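Input chain follows. Return structure tokens only.
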Amino acid sequence: DVCEALNVTVSPGPTVRYSEGDNATLYCHISQKRKTDNLLAVRWVFAASPTQEYLMIKMTKFGSVQYYGNYTHNFHKQRLHLLKDKHGTIYKFLILSLQQTDQGHYICKVQEIGKHRNKWTAWSNGTAATEIRVISSKSSDDSTFKKNHEAWKFFEDLYVYAVFVCSIGIISVLLFTLVILCQSLLNKRRSTVKHYLVKCPQN
């Protein structure tokens, strides 16, 4: 049982989109049952391309966090955080204030470590990945402007249509009123005509 690969999954995925400046949260789930005495070492690797991988951050089997390469700089230490839940089955990786250079694949590599003859030995491994795509603020603004422009255009068309319908309604009411007025005047004129009774000689 110990030799089997760990069941590791990363969420959200397989692709997640963020706007530039947003904070990203990635979860590494370890669902494979392991020995109670064994510990886990979790690494997050960044791959800008399939041929370039960079180890970013690691949580050792004892729970301490270590940074690697360019990510040892204080600027990156403030942006990157690796935490685990109390059950030790979910590891949360935080990336604060995303930049265009953060776009790429993020790989969670988990190693199960146990003691064998008083020596720490790696028993099994598991790997899962997700892709982060960072939308630039300029593209986001252009997209927002385009959506607002389309919305205003729709309301402008709706306004013109409403004015047209109201105009037809007003003209119809005026014509109806004019017809009623003409009929009233005509009936009034007819009512004022005098009628005379004339006696014929034969009667």
